[in-house]
Amino acid sequence: MKRGVLLETLAAGLPAGTIRYNSKVVDIFTDSSNSDFPTIMLEDGTYIKAKVLIGCDGVNSIVSEWLGFHPAKFMGRSTSRGLSTYPEGHDFDPKLYINLQQGIRAGYIPINHTEVFWFLNRKSLPQDSETAQEPKLIIQEALDLLRDFPEEYHDILKRTLQDTPTLSPLRCRCPWTVLVGRLSKSTVAIAGDAMHAMTPYIGQGGCSTLEDAVVLGRCLAEGMNGKIFNSTNEERKRIEEALKKYVEVRRWRVFMLMTKSYITGLLQPGSGRFAKFLREKIMTKVSGNALSHAEYDCGGLFDTMK
């Protein structure tokens, strides 16, 4: 689905004024005078005291850095994306199409009866930063790279809406960072790419973030349970325990996703004969069902709240 549609739908369910836009966080403080609750400083110099701070601020997360995480690792590959339109409708089945040739991974998926999302993953090039500034160059480069791909790829690219193409380098966190790293501290925690930035090869980045949200909401609700606390210290401890439970539930799940995505990227076609052997003889047997990672139920918001 379109990211904008998802965000607008989620925002529509909140009371007016809940969301504060254009508020980039640049620093985080905790001190005993604030009972160890975090205070954040915004880019415009505003300070906000928060009882709970969840860093869902992407691959360049300020909150992750505050927790001690190193910057996400550059993978040496880049991905182009775009949205194509078929005003008269298209004939594609509602499924994901992927084609792999000579180290290039390209695919597309219909998101409704008139629009198709496409992507292209390939080795990064020195001129990528310049190409990324020009949507027309992104499309032209994609057409050149996919000249030997099936004809429908060419048609999809030529139908790309001019304001939608993007080109960005792939960065991810090494899977073991979520096993050994600190994912929460006091009443601060992380979610989404801030916690588990991963390569896109198994399509679970956004999906796992939605899982984070459900588990986080459930854990916080159970921890607070409508209580009126006698002291801020008691309240802080309950929030801290709720975040620890959230981390405990999510840590292994996202580690497995990150690992599978990381290895899938390393062993993609064009990576050499040894990689081909591992992919075809080892990974297929170990992974079993290629979509087994998606057969997961994180539970509902109210599963244990009776």
Briefly characterize the structure.
The chain has ten helices and eleven strands. The protein has 306 residues and is an alpha+beta fold.
Overview of the molecule:
This protein is of the alpha+beta class and 306 residues long. It has two domains: 3-72 and 174-294, 3-Layer(bba) Sandwich (FAD/NAD(P)-binding domain), CATH 3.50.50; 74-171, 2-Layer Sandwich (D-Amino Acid Oxidase, Chain A, domain 2), CATH 3.30.9. The protein is 38% helix and 21% strand. The chain has helices spanning 3-12, 62-67, 128-131, 135-145, 151-158, 177-180, 193-196, 205-224, 232-266, 273-287, and strands spanning 25-30, 38-42, 47-49, 53-55, 73-85, 97-101, 104-110, 115-123, 166-172, 184-185, 188-190. The strands form three sheets. The chain has a five-stranded antiparallel β-sheet with strand order 6-7-8-5-9. Strand 1 and strand 2 form a beta hairpin. The mean pLDDT is 88.
Query: What's the name of the CATH homologous superfamily of the largest domain?
Result: FAD/NAD(P)-binding domain
Tell me the number of strands: 11
Provide the structure class. alpha+beta
Give the N-terminus to C-terminus distance in angstroms. Answer: 33 Å
Helix fraction? 25-40%
How is the main sheet built? Answer: 5 strands, antiparallel
Instruction: Please write the CATH class name of the largest domain.
Output: Alpha Beta
What is the radius of gyration?
A: 22 Å
Tally the helices.
10
Q: Return the average pLDDT rounded to an integer.
A: 88
Strand order of the largest sheet: 6-7-8-5-9
User: What's the helix-strand series?
Assistant: HEEEEHEEEEHHHEHEEHHHH
How many domain modules?
2
Rough outline? elongated
- CATH structural fold name of the largest domain: FAD/NAD(P)-binding domain
What is the correct CATH architecture of the largest domain?
A: 3-Layer(bba) Sandwich
Low-confidence stretches: none
Fraction of residues in β-strands: 15-25%
